[in-house]
Amino acid sequence: MNASCRLAVLEAAVILLPLTVVAALGTIWSGRYLAVAIVELRFDLLTLISALGVAGLLGVIAGWWLLLSFIRHGQAALRAQSPFAWTGAALGAVAAITGAALAFSGQGLIFASGLPALIPLAHLWHERGRAKG
Question: pTM for the full model?
Answer without folding.
Answer: 0.84
